[in-house]
Predict the structure.
Amino acid sequence: MVSGSDASSKVIVLDFGAQYGQLIARRVRDLHVYSEIMPCDASADEIAAERPAAIILSGGPASVYAEDAPSVDPRVFDLGVPVLGFCYGQQVMATALGGTVGHTEKGEYGAARLLRTGDAQLLEGTPDAQTVWMSHRDAVTQAPAGFTVTSRTETCPVASMEDAGRRLYATQFHPEVRHTDYGTDMLKNFLFQICRLAPTWTMDNLAERMAEEIRQQVGSDRVILALSGGVDSSVVAALCSRAIGKQLTCVFVNHGLLRRGEPEQVEEVFTKQFDVDFVHVHAEERYAKLLAGVTDPERKRQIIGTQFWNEFFAVAQKLDGVKWLAQGTIYPDIIESGARKTGGRASTIKSHHNLVPFPEGVSFDLIEPLDHFFKDEVRALGTALGLPDPIVFRQPFPGPGLAIRIIGAVDAEKLEILKDADAIVREEIDSYNARLFEETGERNSEHSVWQYFAVLPDVKSVGVMGDERTYARPIILRAVESSDAMTADWAKLPYELLARVSGRIVAEVPGVNRVAYDITSKPPATIEWE
Ligand code: XMP
C-alpha cells in the first residue's frame, strides 16, 4: 500500500462496494489528512498493520440480510481506533455489535430532514434540524448497547448513533455527499475533535512518500513506461524519476500525429528537467506508410493502437532486466472500465493487466501509483513534482492523435494544415481561458473551455482571396464544455474570439479558405469527429 503520510495519521476507508467509495477518501484528503481505501474483507490484522489513525466504513449496495452480504471483521471494533460508519457501514456496525437492522416501510432516497435527539460529538456545532442525503431501504432499528441515538428523520429512527466511550460513530445518511449540508463539519468533527488528527498532509509530502514506496517496491530493478505526454503518464514519469531516476525508461512513441510543438516539449521536459532514461521512438514514417489510403475511422484507430504496442515492445525487449511496467491508471479509469467491484488494489492490478497486449512470452509486473486518485489530485501532484503547467493542465488529447481529426485518408499535407490550424485554435483559446482564470481564480471555471481543436474535413469549397478565386479546404472548429467527456455541450464562445480564430486561420494557414464552428452537443454527436 502506498503510505501517503505518517502511518499514525492515515485514515483507512473500508469499501463495501459503494458506488463512490473513493469519494470518502477524497473528502478526507481534501481536509489534509491522508486516506486510502481497503477492501471490506481485509482482516483486522491486515488493517492494524496499516496502523490507521481512524477507520471509516463506506456505504454499499447490499442488504445486511443477504446471504453473501459483505461484512467486517468484528475485531476491527476492538482495535482501539475510532470507527465511523456511513449508511451500510452503520448497519454493519450495528449488526456486529448486537443492534438490529430492519426493513423500513419505505426506503428513503434523496434529501431528508434530520432532527437531532441529543448531544453528539459527531454533530457538534451543526443545527438541531438540517438537511442530509439519504439512500437506503434497510435501516438500524435498534442501536447496540452502549450507543446513544443522536438523530432521526421522519422514516429513520436511528439516523445517527455514537458510543463516545469506545469512539464508535455512525450515520445512516451520507456526510461525504455535498447535498448533506453539514457533512464536511461532521467529517471535521471526526478527524480533528474525535481522532485529534492534524491537517498537515499535503501533496508535497505525498509525492515524497509515494516515491519512497516505489523505491522499496522496485529495488534495483528497471521500470518501463509508455510516456504519451498526457497528464497521467507524465505524473507517473515525474514520480518515478524522483524515486528511481535512470532506472526508469520512458518510451515516447512519436507517431507523427501529435500537435505542433508537442514532441519537442515532452522531450525537453523529460531530458532536461527530469532525470530519466528517455527513448524517443521516431515512428512517423512507419505510421505514415501504415495509414496511407486508409479512410475508415475504426481501421485507423486499430492500426494506430496496434502499432503503438509493437513500437513499445520493440524497445522494451531490447532493454535488459526490465521487471516493471508503470502505468498512469487513475481512479476514474477503473470506475469506467467497471473493473473494481469491492475496492482494494489487488483486483485493480489483475483487471488492468489485461488491457496491455503483452506479446507471447513477455510479462511485467504493474505499478499503478495513481490508481487511488482523481484527475485534479493527479494535477496537484504533478505540480508538486515540478511538472510545468502546459503539461499539468493539458487538455485531453486522444491516443490516435490528429489522425481522427482528419476525415478520410491521412497524408503529410493534410497533417501540416491541421497542425497549423490547431496551433492557432490552442493559442487563442488558451489565452481566453487564461483571462478567465485571472478573473475567476478558477482554472476550470464553468465558462472555461474544456477541449478545443481543429478538424479537417474531406471537402473543398470556393472562396475569394485578394481578387482571386480559391478552391481550398475548410477547417471546422470544435470547442466543448464538459467535466468528464461522457456528455458535452458546444462552448458559447464570444463572437470576437470566433472572429479572431477564423481570421487568423484563413490568413495564416495555406490551403484553407473557410472556417466553420461545430454547434452540436454530445449526444447526439461525439466530441471527436471520428
Ligand atoms: P468522444 O469523441 O468519444 O471523446 O466524445 C470523448 C473524449 O475521449 C477522447 N478520446 C480518446 N482518448 N484515446 C484516448 O485516449 C482514444 O482513442 C480517444 N477517442 C476519443 C476525446 O478526445 C474526448 O476527450
Remarks:
- The first strand starts at residue 11 and ends at 15.
- The pocket of xanthosine-5'-monophosphate is lined by residues 301, 396, 398-400, 451, 485, 522, 526-528 (CB under 6 Å).
